[in-house]
Amino acid sequence: MHNLTLINGDGIGPEISDAVVKILDASGVEINWDVQTAGEDVIATEGVPLPNRVLESIKKNKVALKAPVTTPIGKGFRSVNVQLRKDLDLYANLRPCKNLPNVKTRFEGVDIVVVRENTEDLYAGIERQVDENTAESIKIITRNASERICKFAFDYAVKNGRKEVCVVTKANIMKLSDGLFLDVYREVGKSYPQIKQREILVDNLCMQLVQNPNQFDVLVLPNLYGDIVSDLCAGLIGGLGVAQGANIGLECAVFEPVHGSAPDIKGQNKANPTALLLSAIEMLKYINEFDAAEKIEKALFKTLEDGTCTADLGGKLGTKEFADAIIANL
Ligand code: NAI
């Protein structure tokens, strides 16, 4: 029996969480969910969108599955997602982007893993208003953070039988900050002679990705480029409804879809649970439940191969009906 934290989120969060928990239950994997609410709805009762009890639960259980949480705009709250990553030091953001059966996309055979540094760069949030007409934002790149993310990318490549890790920077312009990231990548790479190494500038990468994405394998990037490029890669495989993610640290890991809380389709049984389900499958592998992970993945693929899907992928099924179809294929 695994004790895991479930943050069921807000917006479409509770609908897709219900669907995914039902599918995991039906697979036979034994999970005792510690359900933790967070987000907009919690502010009214507890004053903050991410109460301490949520962090304590993840620290205790080490692993969490997280549905999206709304970040209130302009109310002075920090993003729950950014805060979670910071407080739990989830330094690696992992986004595997692989074509799914029957999901129509521009390219076939895309299989890219984006490894994004999750803790620094322009996301350190160090900004100041210099004067009325000038604002300043500071980009922080450290050896320590660069080293651990590059190691993570190479280790991931070794563990998952990948062939290449390509580093993405703009080191020709930001010679000191991106230059440090690149230098560290080269140093770390020396310990992984079995993995092919490649360096590319982020602008060129973007062009290459939309022309010939199949040339890429694992990408490792500083935070901001990683954020942008991982959404580009999500677009290559069918968009937000199918894009999975994970935030991994030394102590804890939080698995979550790339998409947000989709307030426009909240409560309408329209949301696609696939991205959260793929994140949950990755979570099962992380806790060594490989059989259950494989079984669920097969059932999902079979369901998609049958042409059964939600409206965002051109299908007719609602969230619940799609989950039931997957369960029937388990
Ligand atoms: P969003 O990802 O929620 O929605 C963008 C578009 O994609 C919408 O049209 C939505 O209906 C559609 N969409 C998203 N997920 C879908 C799914 N599973 N099935 C079908 N359609 C789906 O992005 P938006 O609107 O920019 O953000 C809404 C809120 O979510 C914001 O408060 C934002 O801060 C938050 N957010 C939270 C994230 C997280 O918890 N990790 C990540 C991104 C945004």
Strand content: 15-25%
Continuous helix count: 11
Cofactors, ions and other ligands in the entry: 1,4-dihydronicotinamide adenine dinucleotide
Please state how the strands of the largest beta sheet are arranged side by side. Answer: 2-1-3-12-11-4-5-10-8-9
CATH class of the largest domain: Alpha Beta
For the biggest sheet, the summary is: 10 strands, mixed
Tell me the CATH topology of the largest domain. Answer: Isopropylmalate Dehydrogenase
Assigned CATH architecture of the largest domain = 3-Layer(aba) Sandwich
The value of Rg in angstroms is: 20 Å
User: Secondary-structure element sequence?
Assistant: EHEHHEHEEEEHEHEHEHEEHHH
β-strand number: 12
Total number of distinct structural domains? 2
Q: What structural class do helix, strand and pairing data support? A: alpha/beta
Low-confidence stretches: none
Distance between the termini: 20 Å
- Residues in helix, %: 40-55%
Shape category: globular
Describe the 3D structure:
It is a single chain. With 330 residues, the protein is of the alpha/beta class. The protein has eleven helices and twelve strands. It has helices at 13-27, 40-46, 52-61, 80-87, 143-159, 177-189, 202-211, 223-236, 274-286, 290-305, 319-328, and strands spanning 2-7, 31-36, 63-66, 92-98, 111-117, 127-131, 134-137, 164-169, 196-201, 218-221, 244-248, 253-257. The strands form two sheets. It has a ten-stranded mixed β-sheet, with helices on both faces. The protein has a two-stranded antiparallel sheet with strand order 6-7. Bound molecules: 1,4-dihydronicotinamide adenine dinucleotide. 1,4-dihydronicotinamide adenine dinucleotide (NAI) binds at residues 12, 68-71, 81, 240-241, 256, 259-265, 271-272, 275, 312.
